[in-house]
Amino acid sequence: MSGFNKVVSSYQEAMAGLSDDMTIIAGGFGLCGIPEGLITEIKRQGVKGLTIVSNNCGTDNFGLGMLLEDKQIKKMVSSYVGENAEFERQYLSGELEVDLTPQGTLAEKMRAGGAGIPAFYTATGYGTPVAEGKEVKQFNGRNYILEESVTGDFAIVKAWKADKIGNLVYRDTAMNFNPMAATAGKITVVEVEEIVEVGELDPNQIHTPGIYVNRIIKGSFEKRIEKITLAKN
To answer: Tens of pLDDT along the chain (233 residues)?
Structure first.
């Protein structure tokens, strides 16, 4: 990379510095808006003991689920895990630590972490196992629990377009957790469908400013469908 140009030419360069026992914040929702190539590179590198913060863990053989195959993940911080049988098996056998987190709380944990806010109060989860061991405080007669924010050694993100200095545009529902994840990594790596010159993106349409982004790589995407349901004739 030279100057403000954040484009890299290989996945190995994109994930340079990744090592065992790191925390990775990952964008995506199901298989929508996931950084497919970056996940594949993490699998190729074979790093172990990872903590992954993501809405879910892909499917058995795609997305973050691929990292479960070689037991590269030590802990998942997620809100939904229902499409992954290997995830269930590892959790029930005690091989995988899981911190189930309400979806909105998870998104706010990322956003707050990126904003430098160490913790926040939320009513979500009060009176449930989610609140066990957490500080409770009352505001205007309502009970709230204290949730700590999250940050990662890496954040891996999927965007639609980027310019060469890292300004990002997401597309439709593939936006999901990606904007919050992009702010929460010490090193934020973005995989995109298209890279354009600086000035080509409408400033009013930029979702994540380039100040949050460290590396960009142009990828190619399979875009699998997570589950297909066919109507009976």
So the answer is: 445 899 999 999 999 999 999 999 999 998 899 999 999 999 999 999 999 999 999 988 899 999 999 999 999 999 988 778 999 999 999 999 999 999 999 999 999 999 999 999 999 999 999 999 999 999 999 999 999 999 999 999 999 999 999 999 999 999 999 999 999 999 999 999 999 999 999 999 999 999 999 999 999 887 777 677 778 87
The domain of 84 spans: 11-107+150-218
Nearest to 70 by CA among 95, 36, 38, 97: 95
Q: How many Å apart are CA 122 and CA 136, to the nearest integer? A: 9
pTM higher than 0.70: yes
The residue to which tokens 């709380």 are assigned: 105
Which CATH number is 94's domain given?
Answer: 3.40.1080.10
For residue 127, is it within any domain?
Answer: no
Beta strands (DSSP E) in 11-59 are 23-26, 50-53
Q: How many domains does the chain have?
A: 1
Residue 126 lies in a domain: no
